[in-house]
């Protein structure tokens, strides 16, 4: 029985990865909200947007995984700095 | 930083006022919201360092002690709260936020326009849009539900659903 999926459908792994990327982007935006200065917030938002958009068309799963890890590291750094700044 | 503290204490004042007036069993008291808010803003850091402790009985008694209850005997309660939401206002606010978004062409924007199919946005933009909605309406939208909201119509429905707005 032939597959009825449209040709552009993602495989399960790709789908999960896509969800993860969107999750990281969302967490990043939420963390950036907590930055005290408005100009810094704008700069960080634009930076995050640029980074994600630049790599939007990557197809190699390993490369994507590396980028997700990088993004998560950036996110954790940002969160730690915010914690330090608040105390 | 000072401005943040003042805004924070003003918000706290509005909320605690609501709580206080409701929990007061005496209908004859009239608490003027403006005075209390000002007093809270002026009050030193002590009030600020109590995060959301609504069961702040000490705060209530302190305010009652401090505030000169202007005219006792008037059955008038003044609550501090936001204006009630209606489907119309939700729709207007959603469309307003969308028009401010730089990647959307305001002329093409309809209530039923699909972000990806009609407006040519991608999923990252959709995440940004939902974040903007969270900021506008002041409550968090979880990931699982956020990724399904693909038209302004759906966003309005979702918000009305969460905020119990019926019409």
Automatic annotation (TrEMBL), chain A:
Main localisation: mitochondrion
Keywords, alphabetical: Mitochondrion, Transit peptide
Keyword hit for Iron-sulfur: no
GO cellular component terms listed in the entry, alphabetical order: mitochondrion
Subcellular location, record wording: Mitochondrion
InterPro entries tied to this protein: Complex1_LYR_dom (IPR008011), Complex1_LYR_LYRM2 (IPR045293)
Pfam family, one: Complex1_LYR
Record-annotated Complex 1 LYR protein domain positions: 19-77
UniProt keyword Disulfide bond present: no
Role summary: Involved in efficient integration of the N-module into mitochondrial respiratory chain complex I.
Family in the record: Belongs to the complex I LYR family.
Protein name: LYR motif-containing protein 2
TrEMBL record, chain B:
GO cellular-component term (any): mitochondrial membrane
Keywords: Electron transport, Fatty acid biosynthesis, Fatty acid metabolism, Lipid biosynthesis, Lipid metabolism, Mitochondrion, Phosphopantetheine, Phosphoprotein, Respiratory chain, Transit peptide, Transport
Domain Carrier positions: 88-163
InterPro entries documented for this protein: ACP, ACP-like_sf, PP-bd_ACP, Ppantetheine_attach_site
Top-level taxonomic group: Eukaryota
Lipid biosynthesis among keywords: yes
Ranges annotated as spanning the membrane: none
Chief location: mitochondrion
Gene Ontology molecular function: any one: acyl carrier activity
A Pfam family per the record: PP-binding
Subcellular location, record wording: Mitochondrion
Function: Carrier of the growing fatty acid chain in fatty acid biosynthesis.
Family under the similarity heading: Belongs to the acyl carrier protein (ACP) family.
Protein name: Acyl carrier protein
């Amino acid at each position: 029985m032939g597959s009825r999926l449209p040709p552009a459908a993602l495989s399960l792994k790709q789908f999960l990865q896509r969800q993860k990327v969107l999750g990281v982007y969302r967490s990043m935006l939420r963390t950036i909200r907590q930055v005290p200065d408005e100009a810094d917030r704008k700069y960080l938002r634009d930076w995050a947007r640029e980074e994600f958009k630049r790599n939007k068309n990557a197809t190699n799963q390993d490369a994507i995984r590396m980028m997700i890890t990088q993004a998560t590291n950036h996110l954790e750094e940002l969160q730690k700095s915010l914690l330090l700044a608040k105390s | 930083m000072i401005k943040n503290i003042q805004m924070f204490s003003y918000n706290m004042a509005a909320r605690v006022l609501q709580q206080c007036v409701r929990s007061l069993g005496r209908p004859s008291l009239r608490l003027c919201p403006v005075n209390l808010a000002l007093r809270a803003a002026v009050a030193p850091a002590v009030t600020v360092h109590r995060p959301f402790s609504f069961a702040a009985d000490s705060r209530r008694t302190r305010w009652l002690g401090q505030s000169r209850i202007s005219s006792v005997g008037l059955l008038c309660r003044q609550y501090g709260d936001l204006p009630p939401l209606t489907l119309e206002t939700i729709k207007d606010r959603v469309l307003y936020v969308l028009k401010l978004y730089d990647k959307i062409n305001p002329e093409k924007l309809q209530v039923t326009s699909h972000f990806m199919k009609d407006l040519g946005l991608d999923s990252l933009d959709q995440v940004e849009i939902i974040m903007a909605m969270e900021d506008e309406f002041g409550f968090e939208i979880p990931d699982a539900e956020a990724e399904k909201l693909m038209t302004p119509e759906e966003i309005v429905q979702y918000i009305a659903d969460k905020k119990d707005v019926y019409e």
